[in-house]
Design brief:
- The relative contact order is 0.23.
- The N and C termini lie far apart (35 Å).
- The longest helix is centred in the middle third of the chain and has 12 residues, at 102-113.
- By secondary structure, the protein is an alpha/beta fold.
- The chain has a single domain, classed as Glutaredoxin.
- It has helices at residues 8-17, 102-113, 115-118, 131-134, 137-141, 160-165, 193-201; strands at 71-74, 80-82, 92-96, 122-127, 151-155, 173-177, 183-188.
- Residues 26-67 are annotated as: Disordered.
- Residues 61-202 form the Thioredoxin domain.
Length: 202
């Protein structure tokens, strides 16, 4: 595993490529975006996007212990969505996903079938993908979640999640925060729907 610093753009590219790793992962899995991925072929940098990246995080990290300040964008309206917009008094789950990831699609389908069990939880789907690819994700794979007041589909335009929350090594990545804003649990990759529901409501 490589040690040291890396660019946010390189991490984003690595995440897109390794979106659906089939390996099962346990809670508190350490992220390694470089594993199995050759960066020598990448010439793209943050400068080519006209932006200066913030200082990179270490490769190995735990998720942030409490919900940080952030600004994502609602996919359907384009309006900003910030920490202050999260309804209070309930668990909040951030699901970092890729719309083309089969495991992400399967998890959305399973959650959709169990909506009654998660209707009192804030569920925030986050992706760095083009909003045009995100907009049909829930209508296609999570019909019972689409349009529900406790479910938001959010575009991470500035890669804030991997800068402020966590850098997972595969999708979907789930982060459950309590009503107090503190992290309860997280995992990356597949889990059974029974385990997911237990984690969401605990």
């Amino acid at each position: 595993m490589m040690k040291g610093k890396f660019s946010i753009v390189a991490v984003a590219i690595a995440l897109m490529i390794s979106a659906c790793n089939n390996n099962d992962n346990s809670n508190n899995q350490v992220a390694d975006p470089h594993e199995g991925h050759d960066h020598s072929t990448h010439t793209e940098s943050a400068a080519t996007h006209g932006q200066t990246p913030p200082p990179a995080q270490p490769e190995e990290q735990d998720p942030t212990a409490s919900i940080p300040d952030f600004k994502f964008y609602k996919v359907k309206s384009g309006f900003g969505y910030e920490k202050k917009d999260i309804p209070s008094g309930k668990n909040t789950v951030f699901i970092l996903f890729d719309p083309s990831c089969g495991h992400c699609q399967q998890e959305a389908q399973a959650l959709s079938k169990n909506y009654d069990k998660i209707k009192d939880i804030n569920i925030l789907y986050i992706s760095m993908n083009d909003p045009g690819l995100m907009v049909n994700f829930l209508p296609s794979f999570g019909k019972e979640l689409d349009g529900k007041p406790n479910v938001e589909m959010l575009y991470d335009r500035n890669q804030e999640f991997i800068r402020k929350f966590h850098i997972p090594n595969m999708f979907p990545a789930n982060y459950v925060y309590g009503a107090d804003g503190n992290l309860k649990t997280h995992w990356v990759g597949e889990k059974s729907i029974e385990e997911i529901l237990t984690a969401f409501v605990q």
